[in-house]
Input
Amino acid sequence: MVQLGLVGLGKMGFNMRERLRAAGHEVVGYDRNPDVSDSTSLEDMVSQLSGPRIVWIMVPAGEPTRQTVTELGQLLSEGDLVIDGGNSKFTDDKLNADLLASHGVGYLDCGVSGGVWGKDNGYGLMVGGAASDVQRAMPIFDALRPEGPREEGFSHAGSVGAGHYAKMIHNGIEYGIMQAYAEGFELLEAAKIVDDVPAVIKGWQRGTVVRSWLLDLLVRALDEDPELDDLEGYVEDSGEGRWTLEEAVNNAVPAPVLSAALFARFSSRQKDSAAMRAVAALRNQFGGHAVKKAGS
Amino acid sequence: MVQLGLVGLGKMGFNMRERLRAAGHEVVGYDRNPDVSDSTSLEDMVSQLSGPRIVWIMVPAGEPTRQTVTELGQLLSEGDLVIDGGNSKFTDDKLNADLLASHGVGYLDCGVSGGVWGKDNGYGLMVGGAASDVQRAMPIFDALRPEGPREEGFSHAGSVGAGHYAKMIHNGIEYGIMQAYAEGFELLEAAKIVDDVPAVIKGWQRGTVVRSWLLDLLVRALDEDPELDDLEGYVEDSGEGRWTLEEAVNNAVPAPVLSAALFARFSSRQKDSAAMRAVAALRNQFGGHAVKKAGS
Amino acid sequence: MVQLGLVGLGKMGFNMRERLRAAGHEVVGYDRNPDVSDSTSLEDMVSQLSGPRIVWIMVPAGEPTRQTVTELGQLLSEGDLVIDGGNSKFTDDKLNADLLASHGVGYLDCGVSGGVWGKDNGYGLMVGGAASDVQRAMPIFDALRPEGPREEGFSHAGSVGAGHYAKMIHNGIEYGIMQAYAEGFELLEAAKIVDDVPAVIKGWQRGTVVRSWLLDLLVRALDEDPELDDLEGYVEDSGEGRWTLEEAVNNAVPAPVLSAALFARFSSRQKDSAAMRAVAALRNQFGGHAVKKAGS
Amino acid sequence: MVQLGLVGLGKMGFNMRERLRAAGHEVVGYDRNPDVSDSTSLEDMVSQLSGPRIVWIMVPAGEPTRQTVTELGQLLSEGDLVIDGGNSKFTDDKLNADLLASHGVGYLDCGVSGGVWGKDNGYGLMVGGAASDVQRAMPIFDALRPEGPREEGFSHAGSVGAGHYAKMIHNGIEYGIMQAYAEGFELLEAAKIVDDVPAVIKGWQRGTVVRSWLLDLLVRALDEDPELDDLEGYVEDSGEGRWTLEEAVNNAVPAPVLSAALFARFSSRQKDSAAMRAVAALRNQFGGHAVKKAGS
Output
């Protein structure tokens, strides 16, 4: 059994603490929200850990993570280890690792997948960093990952940054898969040739080529709301989808499906599209085509 | 000077009659609307023409055109010639030609481009059919096409159907070009780095690689409405865009730009997208992500 | 236990016969290949069945299926039932059903998914047709579908044609999902930030959001050939992907992901692209950009 | 008449010097290639100019431009003005402007469009920077831009960076338009319904909605090589296309056409696609589909 500091007890961090404790590990959590925190400050959390320490960061990517890493650099000691399990951009990892290395503190980046289901099912983990650090944190990873062969729910993807890189690509793929099901669903709904769309989708869960965990979730959603009309077709995107497309551009890799999925989300959030106003204006100019006037 | 029957005096047909008459040709028009018609019926129109007759059809594609061809088959005589100048699907042309051939009547299909500007600028023409029929109708084509070398505003594209095929592809390209400008416009608007977006677009009219007639029209539209916010981003599509994509599929030709332009129009007409509701539902299922409830 | 005629003993039909027999059903197969056939002709097959008969067709879509239906119409009797389990276009089903109905023979269309794995895992089934016919054939469906709750591997999608419609959409989605993984794989390979790409993908099998049966197959493929360089990036497409896009167009449903996946396959089969020669020619014209000369 | 230093006498800079001199301006050019240079060094060039000086940079974007700006900062004096006419990323402009401002030297960024045709036709110009600097350089801009109303070939797009931003979007649009024509061309070639594809495209030059300068160039290319088979469908991309897509992502603007055009170029340069090998591998796994073995 190991001892772990855990910074950030939101939806993900809170559940991870549960899973880790259920596996018998000792977790000292810190969160700004005192209702969930096991410690009064980062400093207090660190002081409750006996060295060499392992601290897992599970706070929002970007400035919050950067801030936490900086503070931990002050508080931790040579030989300690920090793991960033948030959705950081892979380019941040080198900066974090360098900062901590200047204090003799090790660094791993760990992409974590599985959402709210991870508490019970385990989390898919992709880790970047030195093999010796990975080895040292393995009891933590083993507690967090799903049952079954380790290599089916955990990978050591490469050196620092590779874990978040793998997670970024994972999320890009996730966008594409979700959009593929979504387009199929809309087509089934629109064509009205299939009478019972939810039954068809439920019937895809076994034996078919498209069976997947996301399909199971779609079936759950349709069980609760067969036409999915309790919610709006308004979809946020996280950094990872955007970074995946950036990486496609940087590496000259065609990514038509991943970009289409991202753009569909952008479109879903537009009340009115400037681009389509331009197309309407052009049609109007050359064809005298009827256009919808704003406010009409 | 030649004599022509012209069926359909809507926005296009009406203007074409003007242009033909301005060139000195005799046009007997027929339209169901007596205010614009020169004849009381198709039969009356035909009776006012001396053989061998040429009749130009300018009515909506599909059933209306088919109906007109069928009636003309009854009314015309061996050696007469029918030209379909509407936006018919190229597969209709063979049917029309065969039907008329059974009466000894010739057939040409003619794609007509240029919109409301054609009356003054001339129309771009793409013709399918027998060379002898094309030759016979050339005075008409010469009056309708723009000034300048014939081969820059007119083509004999091939046998029956080839004219409408060329026009279909023309329109597919048109969708793509319009969407390219539109995406650029939206980006300029969104990024707010360029202060005067209409001025930049106006400044693209000369010397640049993207100068075009459609750009000139966009400049006109922006002159009238600098943010294009007098109209909605709601865009219809005509058959040709869809048929172009069908043809891409039939010929295994990748058409990512042309399809993206068509899909952008489909999206522009959706108040809410079933596909994006499915994506939102999936995100909700796995991540407990906040979603917009319908009606909220 | 029921008795079934099975026409077509290729890769799919052969395996289905195995699975049906393993479940205790009696199958009289017919195939043009005498090595696998249980009968010498369609007529012989029909004569070996006692009425009321059920005959399952598992031959290529289009003409071969149409031909088989026509012959069965001659051979079968009132009260018999035909099931088309091939990859027919949903619009063929109405024709087939009408033809058989004129002989008093019933008709079901059944989309079958699962590939070569279906023999052992069971096949995902989507059925169109009358409820009474579905009920009658249920022992067959139950034998073919996977273990587990019937509604998770089988659906009665609607009236005639709905089964193949559901299968068509299934395949469109399948294209999109495969392409999503494929783009992610290429990005991982190209960026060279992840050291062990197969290990990362293997590690996605449990706990992650992207886990699926197709992912399991990708892991299998990478186990056999870690860089997938024993084969060419040349991918065929079947009718269903194309028909899905046709349906998207017909129903004005945006399908950017499904179309991108189809177009990627088209592109994969082109040695040289006429479109890209045109782009190269344009760049050459305006910029004097260096271009690759053919054969250089 | 004004005096101008011009750094970089490649394809673009050389032609611009010609056009400026033809307009009566005095140009002192510098290029590392002594065959075309009017001066032996940047220092020599600067020394030949009487203050307050204007120096136009026309060297490759990125490091070469940055280096030139840095050296000019050393050589120029308070009140001088530098114009970067290259294809720099808009984010470089602020850095360049700040560096020069520390020496009291002004800065304008100018996007230049028109390719090799600019020498005779004039160049489309988009400028970013202070109005007073723009005013001061106007004689240069007027000499470089096309005949006709200034606002149709020149724009002051906004503050520093806006000129290159406008040029970046211009190029993104250019990619989309070129791809639209290219897909149409390939479809016409593939379908073989139009007999004379070059004649049809030539016939689009007048009257049609798709007429443009790029279309005129396509006609020129087809005049020289009717099937465009003297060159390969291998197309480079410049930074601007990539940056446009980056900006679309950064601003959450859907850009399906511009991204499709960029990805088509990426694909055109791949001998074999890792993504499509993955799709082939998946098909092979589930369906036992025939795949092309590498080297076969």
User: Anything to note?
Assistant: Chain C is about 50% helix and 10% strand. Chain C touches chain D through 59 residues (CB under 8 Å). The two ends of chain C are 67 Å apart (CA to CA). The beta strands of chain C are 3-7, 26-30, 54-57, 81-84, 106-113, 124-128, 154-158.
